Amino acid sequence: MKLISLFSVIFMMVVGPTNCSDAKKIQKTPPMAIGKAYYESWTSEVKSEGSGFNLFIPVSEKDDSMLTLDSVYFRDQIVNLSKKTTDAGSVYVGEFKNPQPTNVDIIMSSDPMDEMANKTPVVTQKIPYELKPTEAMVSYKANGETLYFKIENIQEKPSK
């Protein structure tokens, strides 16, 4: 019994401070001037490609070269951001895919070779933040440290 309580104390000492340090890395304001973020839904003409949405984060030209946005947490998903240049300026885009229902039969057999035909399940990654459907958490790197800021009031824009 003493051994279990000792391991519990050691576990809390190791894990406890790491969770607190993540909370300190969230910045109250974005590190650069950001325009109004929005998303557009899309559906592929090819049925197997599915559907999803793209999140657009416009950034100011003058702040554009200072740092790079890395990834975004939005609607229980995380994706990397890619930078695109348009006539209106620079914009970071996150491409999200809607999860597709899986109606795949699982092969159960006493022969392991038959079971090798099973597809591995897709496990969704739990994001470490509680976000509303209109909020996103963006990560970026500054001075070798990963920092975060929140974007609020993200609206859907009709697809073109």
Question: What's this entry about, in short?
Answer:
The protein is α+β, with helices and mostly antiparallel strands.
Task: Report on this structure.
It is a single chain. By secondary structure, the chain is of the alpha+beta class. It is 17% helix and 36% strand. The chain has two helices and nine strands, in the order αββββββαβββ. The protein is extended.
Quaternary structure state of the chains depicted = single chain
DSSP helix fraction? 10-25%
**Overall pLDDT metric:** 77
Radius of gyration: 21 Å
Helix and strand sequence? HEEEEEEHEEE
The count of DSSP E runs of length 2 or more, i.e. the number of strands, is 9
Describe the biggest sheet? 9 strands, mixed
The secondary-structure class comes to alpha+beta
Shape: extended
Question: How far apart lie the N and C ends?
Answer: 64 Å
Q: Compute the number of helices.
A: 2
Provide the β-strand percentage band: 35-45%
Key attributes of the depicted protein:
extended, alpha+beta
Helix-strand layout with pairing:
Blueprint: H1 2-24, E1 26-27, E2 38-43, E3 51-59, E4 69-74, E5 77-86, E6 89-97, H2 112-115, E7 136-142, E8 145-151, E9 155-156
Parallel strand pairs: 1-8, 2-9
Antiparallel strand pairs: 2-3, 3-6, 4-5, 4-7, 5-6, 7-8
